[in-house]
Amino acid sequence: MAVFLHFAPAIGLAATVGKRIISPRLMLAGAACAVLPDVDFLVMKLGGFPYGHIYGHRGFTHSIGFAVLLAVLAWLWAVPWRRQAQQTRKLRWADRAIAASFILLCTLSHPLLDNLINAGICTAWFWPLDDARTCLPWRPISVSGMRMFTLDWLWVEMKWIGLPLLAVAAVARLWRRMARWMKQSDGNGEASESAGIETVKQQKTQKEVLSARTQHQIKAYQAEAVLLRMRLQAIEASGLGTEARRENDTTTWADHPRAQRQRRRLALELFAQSLTRGVQ
Ligand SMILES: [Zn+2]
């Protein structure tokens, strides 16, 4: 049985596919599920079950059925971790499927690692359908004569589990970087061209909006001018034009020919009055 690195496949898998797909939160949940099957020690002690019982060690918690159960719980309780999904609180089917399959793989990694080591009891893989215990035909990791929780044991686990996972994760990361870099260098030309087209489109729309606004404004001004002209004609026709014009727009009214005629007539009347007074 693996002792130290049951959590490693969860982290290795998450690092391999990247955090766009497996969030850090989901990775931690996966790591916990990868360690969880060994809780059977507690069940065995508390329940007083014998070591080889289905509720003993490597019993129901190390089965495919238990992994499926955890995957179903992950499907039901999956929470949105993508930023966009967090904002809308909408969980896509793909998010649930990723969470469920990741938890399934992490939980299954536990009995798999246990079985790769040539020590310990076999596993009840097919619980609840069958309580019988089966060992994998290939158990390459030899820990014969080693004591658990020792540095020798840790080194064996590092050699068979830790280092291969690290290598796979590193290659995957490098691959993703290269793919991104190639995509960027390929897309640069197209991107700048399409960006140019986008800018021209935006400018066109802005112009259209502006011209529509201007035309609307011009029409409003024209209507206002017509109204003003009508008001002016009405005032002049009513005979109150002089006073109103003087109040509103004296400078222009003062230059008006009719105003000049009025002023001349007034001056003549005054002159005539002064003459008649002088005579009297
Ligand atoms: Zn175990």
Describe the structure.
It is a single chain. With 280 residues, this protein is an all-alpha fold. It has two domains: 8-191, no CATH class; 241-280. It is 71% helix and 0% strand. The chain has helices at 8-17, 24-35, 40-47, 64-77, 83-88, 93-116, 151-238, 241-248, 250-254, 257-279. Helix 1 (8-17) runs antiparallel to helix 2 (24-35), helix 1 crosses helix 7 and helix 4 packs antiparallel against helix 6 (93-116). The structure holds zinc ion.
Topology:
Layout: H1 8-17, H2 24-35, H3 40-47, H4 64-77, H5 83-88, H6 93-116, H7 151-238, H8 241-248, H9 250-254, H10 257-279
The structure holds zinc ion.
Structural key phrases:
single chain; binds zinc ion; 10 helices; 280 residues; 0% strand
Question: Major sheet: size, sense and barrel closure?
Answer: none
Mean pLDDT: 81
Give the helix/strand class: mainly alpha
Span of the ends, CA to CA: 142 Å
Small molecules bound in the structure, each named once: zinc ion
Proportion in helices:
over 70%
Count of helical regions: 10
Got a strand count? 0
Strand coverage percent: under 5%
Succession of helices and strands: HHHHHHHHHH
Shape: rod-shaped
- Taking Cα atoms only, what radius of gyration do you get, to the nearest Å? 45 Å
The stretches of 5 or more residues where confidence is low (pLDDT under 50) are none
